[in-house]
Write a structure and sequence with these properties.
301 residues, 6-stranded mixed beta sheet, 7-stranded mixed beta sheet, CNF1/YfiH-like putative cysteine hydrolases, 13 strands, alpha+beta
Length: 301
């Protein structure tokens, strides 16, 4: 991870204590000079041209209940603190000597995407204006270098898709409503239809999010379509019989579109169980949003 300039001695494997899943590739990186922490996915980190990070809630400037690296502007936090936190995230991704453009969405639990292609913008100023604008959507897909998709979550899944052959990257916000809409499958379709990606070449990663141990839906018969009830957990092995496994729902949605099982990595960390490290709306109510960032950098950087 030469692009982050951090000390990797603090790397540790992410715990899977909540669901018994083993993920040996989701690693934490600690900055020895600050409280900042973030995670990387092993199979995404193999591609030198791709920069990505799952930031925790640590290392920012926001005060409780948004402490401290809150990147969500619509949370009730002080806007100046949020902007400073975004600067911290952005500088960690770009390092020194590189200019990047970070695209934040007004996420609405829908199925719409912002799609950016190389030929869409002819100048840097055009790109700057676009990225600084307001975009209501829940996904970003681009093959433009040095554009970074930023997904902000607190229990919802942030999903990164990457096609290393076409050098196309996607950042997707998928809460339980997005899962019902299969926004992840829609993202794969756009990569295939708009950029020529073969699903078998796509690498997928699912961030820390609401785990099956805490995903209780008492009114699931009214909220969740019957064909998805197969993801309801066995009450004998969990505290509640109305819990759903959205991690495996997302995995199946990816595989149904042709993404290969060995190309899918799930962090396996439940955010409501780990509010010491991540934000959780379900656990905390008023809280912040942690950032998940991904983008392709120019050759030679």
């Amino acid at each position: 991870m030469e692009n982050v300039g951090m000390e990797k001695a603090g790397m540790e494997k992410a715990g899977m204590e909540n669901v018994g899943m083993e993920n040996i590739g989701f690693c934490k990186i600690k900055d020895s000079s600050s409280p900042l922490e973030y995670y990387i996915f092993d199979h995404l980190s193999r591609y030198r041209e791709l920069r990505h990070a799952v930031f925790t809630r640590l290392g920012g400037v926001s005060s409780p209940p948004f402490d401290s690296l809150n990147t969500g502007m619509a949370t009730g936090d002080d806007p100046g603190s949020v902007m400073r936190n975004r600067e911290i995230v952005e500088s960690q991704i770009t390092g020194s000597g590189m200019e990047g453009y970070f695209l934040y969405l007004n996420q609405v639990h829908g199925r719409e995407f912002v799609v950016l292609k190389k030929d869409d913008y002819k100048s840097t100023s055009e790109m700057e204006r676009f990225c600084a604008g307001s975009h209501e959507a829940d996904g970003i897909i681009t093959d433009v270098e040095n554009i970074f998709a930023v997904i902000q979550v607190a229990d919802c899944q942030a999903v990164i898709l990457y096609d290393p052959l076409r050098r196309v990257v996607a950042g997707i916000h998928s809460g339980w409503r997005g899962s019902l809409l299969n926004i992840i499958g829609a993202g794969v379709d756009i990569m295939a239809g708009e950029f020529g990606s073969e699903p078998g070449n796509i690498i997928a990663a699912i961030s820390p999010s609401l785990g099956p141990c805490c995903a209780q839906f008492v009114n699931y018969k009214d909220e969740i379509p019957r064909h998805l009830w197969k993801y309801r957990m066995d009450g004998a092995s969990h505290n509640e019989e109305n819990n759903f496994d959205f991690w495996f729902m997302s995995r199946d949605q990816l595989m149904e579109k042709g993404v290969l099982p060995h190309n899918i990595e799930i962090a396996g960390i439940c955010t409501p169980c780990r509010v010491d490290r991540f934000y959780s709306y379900r656990n905390e109510g008023v809280t912040g949003r942690f950032a998940v960032v991904a983008g392709v950098v120019s050759e030679g950087i």
